[in-house]
UniProtKB/TrEMBL annotation:
InterPro entries: HATPase_C_sf, NatK-like_C. This is Histidine kinase. It comes from Leuconostoc citreum. Keywords: Kinase, Membrane, Transferase, Transmembrane, Transmembrane helix. Coiled coil: none annotated.
Length: 434
């Protein structure tokens, strides 16, 4: 009686666990949260596919039908509904890997229980426990916002993407082949083979993650050296201004003495000559006002980004002004490397846009409302409704990835909002923080 109950419970819950795990893995790997309605709908569809495929008589069809249809379902949802920023190859990779992750842990457990000679009753109980533990792990990963590799990273590394896709499809075919032979009782148990299969699946997930983190670390080191170089450049500019002030101060007493003597002798000719030849000309030699209020920015990395872009602007003869209404120290957001990359992209676009205009000026404003505002003039015709689309750019030599990256980033950060305004031939980018 108890054995029959376990078999019935396993038959009813197995497909449900499978559908939930597969949908959740796709949700995690794709990097974007599926709405509750679509999440439940996808679970229901995969559950129906699993139940229907179990009733198919041919072992070969049963072994390949469910996984193929599930991959198609996940791929369709990703392309049609949610993840239009990613390429179709990235979505296909996420769909295939999701099916592999669903069965990756169960196969070694089944092998161990079978080779250990456990009874069918204990095998059913172990399968149920593994499903429960797997579901708990998936829920924890979703709660802690586990992030795999963003679509932009994979699209920027097409060779790695194609390699991962080929390996994942090979593993999927291998898994179907194993299931087919298992159904025909021609399958030779081997725990080592299953462990190698599991390690290959884990490698598909971990290798691109580690490579991405390595690139981020490398970018941080490069940004650090760029910030040091920019800081040295800025210090040199301040020293140059200070030297000009000292030079002017050195001559200032002589100018005042000659002007005082001309006034005492009421020699209007000497007064005019002193004004036009010395004072007025010296005004042109006075150094410009220091425009970067870096002391008002408590975030050292944000200072570094602005200094690097200040140096870049100077190389393009672009003038950057910085205005900070109050001490900008917003601790309500997680300022990771992507946050500074967003600010850098906005400044790069602004500098490049004004370099083609006569008014070579970029204004950076940190408002009291926790807004980072970047204002610049522009020359090209810009379609404001398309600028956030992946691949669109107003410049022929650009791939249009920058603003699409900003869109994806702000979608994943509920406390950051990005908006674009075009007004009076001014291109205004706003990051509303917190």
């Amino acid at each position: 009686m108890f054995h029959s109950f376990l078999n019935l419970l396993n038959a009813l819950t197995w497909s449900a666990f499978e559908a939930f795990a597969m949908t959740s893995w796709f949700d995690i790997l794709s990097g974007q949260k599926i709405t509750k309605h679509k999440f439940c709908m996808l679970i229901l569809l995969i559950y129906i596919v699993s139940m229907v495929s179990n009733g198919v008589g041919s072992p070969f069809v049963r072994a390949t039908l469910a996984s193929t249809i599930n991959i198609v379902l996940l791929y369709y949802i990703g392309c049609r509904e949610r993840f239009w920023h990613d390429s179709h190859l990235v979505i296909l990779l996420c769909a295939v890997v999701s099916t592999l992750m669903t069965y990756g842990l169960m196969n070694p457990v089944t092998q161990l229980t079978t080779l250990a000679g456990w009874s069918v009753q204990y095998q059913v109980i172990s399968n149920l426990c593994v499903n429960i533990v797997t579901t708990f792990v998936i829920i924890m990963l979703r709660c802690f916002r586990f992030k795999w590799v963003p679509g932009e990273f994979l699209q920027a590394h097409m060779k790695q993407l194609m390699c991962l896709l080929v390996i994942s499809i090979f593993l999927r075919i291998w898994g179907n082949y194993q299931a087919y032979h298992f159904a025909r009782n021609h399958y030779t148990m081997s725990i080592w083979r299953e462990l190698v299969w599991l390690l290959m699946i884990v490698a598909i997930v971990l290798v691109p993650m580690l490579y991405r983190y390595y690139e981020q670390l490398q970018n941080k080191v490069e940004q650090h050296f760029e910030a040091l170089s920019a800081s040295q450049y800025y210090v040199n500019q301040l020293e140059k201004q200070y030297a000009e002030y000292r030079f002017f101060k050195h001559d200032y007493k002589n100018i005042l003495a000659s002007l005082e003597y001309a006034i005492q002798t009421e020699n209007m000719h000497d007064i005019k000559e002193t004004y036009y030849s010395v004072i007025r000309r010296s005004q042109l030699l006075l150094p410009k006002e220091t425009m970067l209020q870096l002391s008002q920015l408590s975030d050292i990395q944000l200072r570094g980004v602005i200094l690097v872009k200040y140096q870049l602007a100077a190389e393009h003869s672009v003038n950057i002004t910085l205005s900070v209404d109050k001490l900008f120290d917003n601790t309500s957001i997680e300022k990771d490397i992507d946050f500074y990359r967003v600010v850098g992209i906005l400044l790069d676009n602004a500098i490049e846009a004004v370099s083609l205009t006569t008014d070579k000026k970029v204004s950076i404003i940190f408002s009291k409302d926790n807004e980072i505002i970047i204002v610049n003039s522009y020359q090209e015709n810009i379609d404001i409704h398309r600028i956030e689309e992946l691949g669109y750019s107003s410049k022929n030599t650009h791939e249009g990835i920058g603003l699409s990256f900003i869109t994806r980033y702000t979608m994943q950060q509920p406390l950051i909002e990005h908006c674009t305004i075009i007004k009076n031939r001014q291109f205004i980018q706003k990051l509303i923080v917190g």
